[in-house]
Design a protein that fits this description.
Blueprint lengths: L1 E7 L5 H15 L6 E7 L11 H9 L16 H4 L2 E4 L2 H11 L7 E3 L13 H4 L2 H21 L7
Parallel strand pairs: 1-2, 1-3, 3-4
Helix pairs in contact: 1-6
């Protein structure tokens, strides 16, 4: 079982988008039984709130539901629970490392590194561009799956 936790500032835009996009990808590939996928926030600002309407609307356009998802906060104990803790930008990574108390096992990654880029995933809370965020999330999730296949962490079906 590969355990993936996506992390952003509030857990209402980017990280839930990544959570549900990856869930959809692995389901369509017949790999869902090999994954546990979730998302969390570095802040407490949105805890308990539903996914932002812009993310909900974009994912609805591509047939993905986020029903029932509510924002939760990253906990220090999550480090032991997940194999990959994936932040959306440099600020997220800094806050993740602070909350987690470091990254001794090399589990913390920035989303677009899996797509061969050092760029941040732009925050649609500020940009209003959920389409661009979606494209980045898809690129990052596809890259993660490729890395996992290449390393033999997931078995092809």
């Amino acid at each position: 079982m590969i355990k993936v936790l996506f992390v952003c500032h509030g857990n209402i835009c980017r990280s839930p988008m990544a959570e549900f996009v990856l869930k959809d990808m692995v389901k369509k590939a017949g790999l869902a039984d090999q994954f546990e996928i979730a998302s969390a926030a570095t802040s407490t600002e949105e805890i308990g709130n539903p996914v932002h309407r812009g993310t909900r609307n974009k994912l609805r356009q591509v047939g993905i539901s986020v029903d029932g998802k509510r924002a939760v906060q990253l906990q220090k104990s999550d480090y032991g629970k997940y194999d990959y803790l994936i932040g959306m930008d440099e600020w997220n990574i800094r806050n993740m490392l602070r909350i987690l108390g470091g990254d001794p096992e090399g589990k913390v990654h920035k989303m677009l590194e899996f797509a061969g880029s050092a760029r941040d995933v732009a925050d649609p809370w500020y940009t209003g561009d959920f389409e661009a965020t979606y494209r980045d999330v898809v690129d990052g999730c596809e890259g993660l799956i490729k890395v996992l296949k290449k390393t033999g962490a997931i078995a092809e079906k």
